[in-house]
Amino acid sequence: MRYFVKKTDTTHKAIGAALRSVTRVDDVHEMGKLGCDFIARHIHTGAPIFIEAKSHKKISHRSETKITDNEAKMRDFYPDHWVRCETEEDALRAVGALG
Hints:
By secondary structure, the chain is α+β, with helices and mostly antiparallel strands.
């Protein structure tokens, strides 16, 4: 299998560290075309959570920060398991560590 190096968002390291502090997580961003940056385990159900780390930008609407075609495919294929996270709190909430 050939891997494509993908540029990471500025929040990537912080989100990864937050996830590792509470659950099992694999950083898969270097695979490039997978459609997510991390695959984590939900701490209560054990279900896989596909997390896309995005940097929050100073824009008026969150929807203006685009996702790639591969990210959209992953989101559409796993609507209950794909999550876009801009902060560590978003990621912790996605895996069930926060209310």
